[in-house]
Amino acid sequence: SFTMNMYLFVYDLIQFCGHSWIFTNMMIRFMTFGKDSLADTFYSIGLVMRLCQLLSVLEILHILIGIDKSRLLPRFLQITERIIVLFVVINSQEEVQGKYVVCVLFFLWNLLDVVRYTYNMLARMGIYYLPLTWLNFSLCIPLYPLSVLAKGFAICVSLPYFESFGTYSINLPFPFAFSMYFPYVLKMYLLVLFIGMCFIIQNLFSERKAHLGTGNIKNKRS
Predict the structure, then answer these.
(1) For residue 7, how many other CB atoms are within 10 A of its CB?
(2) Could you give the CA distance from residue 18 to residue 16 in angstroms, rounded to a whole number?
(3) Which residues contact 105 (CB under 8 A, 6 or more apart)?
């Protein structure tokens, strides 16, 4: 309906503005301060980044109620990956926040999202530019695996701090006799992360073929 389409347009616009602000801020800071800007990336843009990622949880709801026709599982995996790495790994360990990998991760996320939300906004209005369509469904194929590698590296960097500080680790005394060593949980999640990557990459290729097939290109040109 028109109302739902307008709602999705406004949602995409808000996300576009948020990610564009982050991306522009990162570029300006890097051009102004050089490598010195990388260490405090999280402190300068972390709040807006967290707000954008929390807002992205709505995309799962959009799919569940049927106003977004995207596949649920790939989108769910992509969103939860970011939520876990951003809030559980980076946000909880101040020592990790100053690492260069955080800047690399934010750069990849925002580059992908600026393109994706731009494409989505125009698509809501029935506007399809072939270069933008190609970029939206092609750029994610090399950049998504790079972002997964950056997530994995961020988790590996955080492990010594989780081991030292015992963050999220649980050790209940008798009679419960339950313990959970969180670094082990993160190590198991690394395996899940890379298995999920294979599934999502396969889905990205399927989406690219569906939107950039010869027939679809002709239809969007006409």
Answers:
(1) 14
(2) 5
(3) 85, 147, 150, 151, 154
